[in-house]
Each structure stands twice: as structure tokens, then as C-alpha cells.
């Protein structure tokens, strides 16, 4: 008998129970159930069974991995979306705060400079020189230079 059973364990169990019940009734024995403790397949069938079991496990593993990758992509997408929302809100607040601070600074500068116009022009010329002049820079100024005018006027005071 070198062929693989095509009926399955339950069907074979049922067939054995029916056949054995006929024989045991002669002796007054009623069979209720038959169970197989172990099935020893022949080598060729065993290899097919193991091969089928391995391929089934691989299929299940691939399915689980696929589900895991899908869930991972879903979670990463959600995290990325939340990160963008948080970053966007933080940038908006930072811009708003920076704008308020600039407005306040402009107001304070305006108030200070309106009280002393000469100081305003002096401050602006210093800012210009700071932006123009680098480290180790020599500067040659004419006597009519605005910077010299401010320095001379402060010496007179």
C-alpha cells in the first residue's frame, strides 16, 4: 500500500469505527469512538506531509510579516503626520512670538529715537560700520565723515 490516503484522518477514523463496530457487536461490545494515537506514514508520504507543513508555516509566517509591515507603515505614517502637525504649530507660534517681539522692539526703538534724534543717527551709522568692517580692517576716514562728526560732537559735550 504505497499510496497516500486521500480521505483524511477523520474519514479514516469513521471508516475504522464502522468496520470495527460490526465485528465487536458479535461479542456484545459497543464501540463509541476510535482515535489514533500515532500515524506512521511511509517515507514518501512523510516527506510530502512535512513539505506541506513547512510550506503552510512559511505561508502563515509571510502573511504575519505582511500584516506587521502594513501595521508598521500605518503607525509610521501617523507618527509622521503628528510630527508635521506639531512642528507646523511650533513654527507658527515661534513666528507669532517673533513678530510680537519685533513689534515691541520697533516701538521701543521708535520711542527712544524720537527722544534723541542725534542718537538714532549715531546708532544707525555704528550699525552700518559694524556690517561693513570685518576683523583686522583698517579704516581711513575723511574729516567730513559722519562717524567722525558724531565722535567730535561727543567730545565737545
From TrEMBL:
It is a single-pass membrane protein. InterPro entries: Band_7, Band_7/SPFH_dom_sf, HflC. Residues 8-66 form the Band domain. SUPFAM superfamilies: Band 7/SPFH domain. It comes from Candidatus Electrothrix aarhusensis. Belongs to the band 7/mec-2 family. HflC subfamily. This is HflC protein. It is found in: Membrane. GO terms for cellular component: membrane. Gene3D superfamilies: Band 7 domain.
